[in-house]
Design goal:
305 residues, 2-enoyl-CoA Hydratase, Chain A, domain 1, Lyase 2-enoyl-coa Hydratase, Chain  A, domain 2, six-stranded mixed sheet, four-stranded mixed sheet, elongated
Length: 305
């Protein structure tokens, strides 16, 4: 199998498993990882995911650049040109979409937290995957290495890596990575903010697992909506983003039981038990009496409720 996909106690782990070929995204691997993203998206028992690579040399070495043997160079050029004007339905620039796949199947947006355990080289599409599909990134001190990996081959790539890199890092750091196309190590990745932590290789998966286990204890609907809010609406003007945030927060409080559980657990000084249980729509509130209306209006205007 090109990937190992394991689900255990609320955490899904995707391991790219082709170390002999740098865990590259060839077609079987791309198809398998796309199916895994969809499965963990739809499985409500899964609250967090970890993505890593097999071995200690490569997280993901990029796309499979070897051409199909049954196509000539002229035929490949023809198909690439056709893709510009006539992409297949349900694709992004000709790439089949996975989940919320506005960037194609390799780089889906999954509204659940994804932790990267970077065990080795993340180059080309491997670096793109970090930028587009992962939220928390832990790097092996001994083995993690990073490289944009395309400019030195004479092209800028079909994926969304450059735009994502400039959004996530300082302009000067992002441009150095893009314009020199030089490799850099885990400590440099930490300095520029590409990763959150650098740990000894032996601690890589335990640390990723510990973070995932913590996220599993949090309210699942609120966690996924927090991620969706940041990605979908985080670039709006502040007043508009705040408005959307308030609407999403009101939905959480009105349609799930987790907000009540959080408050009850806090008041009882006990650990919360978040289940993501959905609340049934109930009867309308009765109209308050004049006295109650005045009292409620006073409380509403005070903001103390």
């Amino acid at each position: 199998m090109p990937i190992d996909y394991v689900k255990r106690d609320g955490v899904a782990t995707i391991t790219l498993n082709n170390p002999a070929k740098a865990n590259i995204l060839d077609k079987p691997t791309s198809d398998a990882i796309s199916e895994a993203w969809i499965d963990l998206w739809e499985d409500r028992h899964i609250r967090c995911a970890i993505v890593t690579g097999a071995g200690d040399r490569h997280f993901c070495g990029g796309h499979n650049l070897a051409p199909r043997p049954d196509l000539t160079a002229e035929e490949r050029e023809y198909l690439r040109t056709q893709r510009i004007y006539w992409p297949l339905a349900g694709t992004v620039h000709g790439q089949r979409t996975g989940v919320d796949g506005r960037m194609g199947d390799h780089y889906p947006r999954v509204w659940k937290p994804v932790i990267a355990a970077i065990n080795g080289w993340a180059a080309g599409a491997g670096l793109y995957m970090l930028l587009t599909s992962t939220d928390i990134r832990i790097a092996s001190a001994e083995h993690a290495r990073f490289k944009f990996g395309l400019l030195s081959q004479g092209w800028i790539g079909n994926g969304p890596g450059p735009a994502m890199l400039v959004r996530q890092l300082r302009y000067a750091d992002a441009m150095k990575i893009l314009l020199t196309d030089e490799a850099f190590d885990a400590q440099e990745a930490l300095r520029v903010g590409l990763v959150n932590e650098v740990v000894p290789h032996a601690d890589l998966m335990p640390r990723a697992e510990a973070l995932a286990r913590h996220i599993v204890t949090l309210p699942p609907a609120a966690v996924r909506m927090m991620k969706e809010f940041v990605i979908r609406f985080g670039n709006l003007p502040d007043d508009q983003a705040w408005h959307v945030q308030n609407l999403m927060n009101s939905l959480l409080m009105q349609t799930t039981m987790d907000a009540e559980e959080g408050r009850a657990a806090f008041n009882a000084k006990r650990p919360p038990d978040y289940t993501g249980t959905l609340r049934r729509r109930g009867e309308p509130w009765p109209e308050p009496s004049d006295d109650d209306a005045r009292r409620l209006d006073e409380a509403y205007r005070s903001g103390e409720y």
